[in-house]
Amino acid sequence: MDATADELAGVVDLFGGLTRPELERALSEAAYRANGQSLDEDALEAAIDDALESFALVRHDPGPDGADGAEDTETLLVAGPTAFPSVPEHAEDVPHILDVDRRRLDRAALGETADDRFTSALEGAIDDGDDDRLAHLIDVSYDFEAWAPVDLATERERLEAARE
Hints:
Mean pLDDT: 87
CATH class of the largest domain: Mainly Alpha
Structural class: mainly alpha
Strand order of the largest sheet: 1-2
Number of helices: 7
Largest sheet: 2 strands, antiparallel
InterPro entries: DUF7109
Low-confidence stretches: 66-70
Helix content: 55-70%
Shape: elongated
Order of helices and strands: HHHEEHHHH
CATH topology of the largest domain: Arc Repressor Mutant, subunit A
Distance between the termini: 43 Å
Radius of gyration: 17 Å
Number of domains: 2
């Protein structure tokens, strides 16, 4: 089973967020339900990396003692601002199979986490002088503002200045 970034986002969105091992287990269950297919771990690793790079997934650290309302303190993968979450075929029953409760995360805390990641990507694109990535990040900044309560106007100005 090969999952797209939007399908990965769809699976984590079923739960509000999943740890990486939980996501792997969910996708393994879905792959097995799809005619006994197995999960290609290398392909999954690459798909997760691509989804994180494109902001379809965002890593979120709930902080000490699940400070933002999460039940645990493990790093979660959540559907990001550029995702169009879609549940892959045979994954619709995964919430009934996994023993994972739905997580309700604080959008402001998610926004802070994603803002840090966005700033890091911005600085990398500016340092590399990658005009295509700079333009992409300008577009993504608007997605971020719709996804979480963040204001990226200053970052957009930096990106636009770097493009000139």
